[in-house]
Amino acid sequence: MVNSGIYSGLCSAKSAGSKRIAMLLDPDKFISPLAGSELDVAVEAGIDYFFIGGSLIAHPGLDAFLESVRKRCDIPLVLFPGSFFQLSYKADALLFLSLISGRNPELLIGQHVIAAPFLKLSPLEIVSTGYMLVDGGVNTSVQYMSNTVPIPHNKNDIAVSTALAGEMLGLKALYLEAGSGARNPVSESMIADVSRAVSVPLIVGGGIRNAESVGAAYRAGADLVVVGNALEKNPGLIRELAAARY
Ligand code: 1GP
């Protein structure tokens, strides 16, 4: 398996108590990185990763998109795919997501079997990740597209049991996801309970719109926070969000 140092970097940061931030780039909404100044702002702010993906991507040129971002910066490109149609050798790593909060076998193991031979030959670092969808107060694209029922917002015990099971199955990271555009991000108390229960890196995203929420997620135990929508609307916000790291 390829080791590009992305996962070990995340683990070292976690042990050192240092926090990470990722900007989600949805190729459909970020059509022309070469033309935009958004990338420059993100580079200047020193963000840690670009996550690339979405529940549904219509953009035809994922490879070209990744190449155009790569030409502009060295920030690691991490695929965060909604399906196996969103794979490319042009990224650095892949979150190999198993949607462990749901009971849709395709997203637990089916798509993984289809993708595995391609990934075996790929130069991507594969980071197996337990993806946990949590109710964010609106019906999000990921909820609809995944055809799964999210963990209720206040059911921390279910989130903890799911996370423990994911860790015991050998998943290398866990991802608490309220869904892009969620009205409510994952609660601090759920992040705290899950973070106390497991030792693998904890990624949190969905509905996080400002530096206060980023800081609150970190204090609760998130190791890496992912922000999409808020930065699509206001790319300059990345400076403030990145400054919430410690
Ligand atoms: C990444 O889905 C999130 O985990 C992104 O959510 O677009 O609401 O920031 P937002």
What is this structure, in a nutshell?
The protein is an alpha/beta fold and 246 residues long.
Ligands in the model, by name, code or SMILES, are: SN-glycerol-1-phosphate
Provide the CATH topology.
TIM Barrel
Biggest sheet layout? 8 strands, parallel, barrel
CATH architecture: Alpha-Beta Barrel
What CATH first level would be assigned?
Alpha Beta
Beta fraction:
15-25%
Shape category? globular
How confident overall, as mean pLDDT? 94
Please count the beta strands (DSSP E, at least 2 residues each): 8
Number of helices, where a helix is a run of at least 4 consecutive DSSP H or I residues: 10
Query: What is the percent of helical residues?
Result: 25-40%
- CA-atom Rg in angstroms: 16 Å
What's the name of the CATH homologous superfamily?
Answer: FMN-linked oxidoreductases
What is the string of SSEs from the N terminus onward?
HEHEHEEHEHHEHEHEHH
